[in-house]
Design brief:
Ubiquitin-like (UB roll), Fumarate Reductase Iron-sulfur Protein, Chain B, domain 2, 2 domains, 5-stranded mixed beta sheet, two-stranded antiparallel ribbon, 9 helices, 7 strands, binds iron/sulfur cluster, binds FE2/S2 (inorganic) cluster
Length: 249
């Protein structure tokens, strides 16, 4: 892991997007705040200090402070990142913060990622489809180690929305499943307990809303804070789609 660069003695200027869509008097604008830098200070700490000491109306989201809950995604100098794991020592003296695009704005830096993710899950039916009746007495079914590991990789997504915000296709096509959506679809395609056929999946994936909506910029792969193997996910989905198309024809 890269060691944190200890910094202090700097005066930081925060330029923060402000807008409350619930208030008809509010208009989108940037507001400046200043703060002394401190060693190991994260954006989480900096924003809390600004809210406590300078402006209690500032809106932003945090819950776990440890890159687990996925609620603190924001644009940091134009790049999506988690506020809780971004250190001010890794940033220049001027720090520009915007809310993540694509998602509905709640206010200032706070966005509603939950509705986007729920709609994506419902649309792609991203849950196990099986006719088997659950038997609590049954012995647990075995799974190949490599396959279990691949499914686990997909499950590591914390639904922060950073990949979606960085995605050129998701920014212009609201029906595109987006990187996180494709990752979730791939997770269930791989799962042998899901009884959907390749033909069923073809309808979900091999469309402009699925993997063929991706325009290949791959920013998602660069910004994912959990370093999910999104490039491998797309390659898997394209291979499966082509195989299903071949079988159809
Ligand atoms: Fe966040 Fe990565 Fe999941 Fe995208 S794939 S929502 S960037 S954890
Ligand atoms: Fe939970 Fe940042 S506060 S991921």
């Amino acid at each position: 892991m890269k060691p944190a660069r200890v910094s202090g003695g700097r005066r930081l200027r925060f330029e923060i997007f402000r807008y409350n869509p619930e208030d008809p008097r509010s208009t989108p604008h940037m507001q400046d705040f200043e703060l002394d830098d401190a060693p190991y200070m994260s954006l989480f700490l900096a924003l809390n200090m600004i809210r406590e000491q300078q402006d209690p109306s500032l809106q932003f989201d945090f819950a776990c402070r440890s890159a687990i809950c996925g609620s603190c995604g924001m644009m940091v100098n134009g790049r999506p990142a988690l506020g809780c794991r971004t250190l001010t020592s890794d940033l220049p003296d001027v720090i520009r913060l915007h809310p993540l695009p694509v998602f509905k704005l709640i206010g200032d830096l706070s966005v509603d990622t939950g509705t986007w993710f729920r709609e994506m899950v419902e649309k792609s039916e991203a849950w196990i489809h099986t006719d088997k009746v659950f038997d609590p007495e049954a012995v647990e079914e075995r799974m190949d180690d490599d396959l279990a590991q691949a499914i686990y990789e997909g499950e590591r997504c914390i639904e922060c929305g950073c990949c979606v915000a960085s995605c050129g296709a998701a920014n212009v096509n609201e029906s595109f499943a987006g990187p996180a959506g494709l990752n979730r679809i791939a997770r269930f395609m791989m799962d042998p307990r899901d009884q959907r056929s390749d033909a069923d999946w073809f309808e979900v994936v091999a469309t402009a809303e699925g993997v063929f909506g991706c325009i290949g910029m791959m920013a998602c792969h660069d910004v994912c804070p959990k370093e999910l193997p999104l490039l491998e996910v797309y390659a898997y989905l394209r291979r499966k789609s082509l195989a299903a198309a071949f079988n159809r024809s």
